[in-house]
TrEMBL record:
This is Pirin family protein. Belongs to the pirin family. It comes from Dyella flava. Residues 12-118 form the Pirin N-terminal domain. Pfam families: Pirin, Pirin_C_2.
Amino acid sequence: MIERRPFDSLGGADHGWLKAKHHFSFAGYNDARRMGWGALRVWNDDTIASQTGFPAHPHADMEIITYVREGAITHRDSLGNEGRTEAGDVQVMSAGSGITHSEYNLEPGTTRIFQIWIIPDERGRAPSWGAKPFPTGERSGRFVALASGFKEDHDALPLRTDARVLGATLKAGETASYTLAPDRYAYLVPAKGSVEINGMHLDARDGAAIRNETALTIKALDDAELVLVDSAP
């Protein structure tokens, strides 16, 4: 089963400095049919104006992954961590027992991100933060784990949940494959370009909610950049 969720059907809000689209219920957007997908709880598509951002605010017991599509985001938190994560890079914040952080676009131009929240396997652990570059050339033609709770994904940022976040870049006409275990949930979004997934068409920033499909074949109709979450029920 693959359910296409067109970009225009997503919830969202326009705050002026922030234009947000929500694949799942979030903040003022509430849709009982879109409360999450397996352990995946939030997938926000955020466009952040220059010299603006999210002031310090708290989180707890959530794995928060930021995939930077354009520009850069500057992070500061109550643990003393500071970092600038730019396009092609990924950051992970394990909120654990509680952390306060801010995220600002201090760049001269617009920043665009996906922010993905996944429910952790355990509550109350010590919070942490980390970031890492993932050059798009190194995931050309294949899916690469960017953040993962699986020990075999040595090069990925660690997650405290039975899930992985993967990225791939495809040239027009190229294909990539991914195998899902029978009980898994997957959610795919093309950050750029249009694709076919098992024959279903997706435009840029559409979502595909995937269940009971063990073999995924993604064909790029244009040059494409893909993000995929594979999570437990």
